[in-house]
Amino acid sequence: MKERILILLLILSGMNAFSQKNAGIDLDEQATLKNVEFTHVPFLLLRFNPTTLFGFNNTLQYGAELAPPFGRFSFSFDYGKGTGKGNFNKDIKNTMPLNQNIEYRGEIKMYFSDWYPFYALDKKPFGRYYSIEYVKGMYERTMDAFVGLGGNNLPSYATITGITFQETRQAVNLKFGKHFQIHKHLFLDGYIGAGLGKYNVSETVFTDEDMDPEAPVLHLGYLTNKEIRQPNTSGWYFSKTAGIRIVVPL
Asked: Distance between CA 82 and CA 92 in Å, rounded?
């Protein structure tokens, strides 16, 4: 009886090894067929990120990735710019159309190439990757505010426009992503990540000459939103990122 059980276990283990081997061959063949369209390994990828337009600090981002034909690493740089009037959030679009958002992103990627049987699918710049990303953002806020007037015969507050302050952010994110090959000249780059950031917000600037700059600001629109921080403050924050880029390999 023991001998039969042992023989059965050996047969099952052999079948499992055979199926894994076949699966590896299939994946290898799939990768070869998918990548055989390229006459060379792409070394430059043009990138466009439409998903960042839907963020609170909406920016239209584009850039490039340089993938040298050796090693596992690649290097990329992105630039993005947006305005309040172009925001998909109607509240921001209507009340803060003069907002100006600028972001710079630098990234170093390391592609996988050592997970059997997936190694043929993970070679630069076709497959999965880890990356470290540095982000610098500058956001100029212009919005309505309620400012105290400080007079006995006057109301305790009045509504004005033209209060401006600037927020600067710097963050380092660790990311995981993958290139999905749609066509010889089209990839989709899906990514997700998190990290640590630091922010610094300037003092308010009153553009209305009739207003007293010493008057206490009682309320700035949307300061209850965690995406906008109180003027004249600084600190640390949890940074998170996710999106899908459109990539054109050259």
From this structure: 12
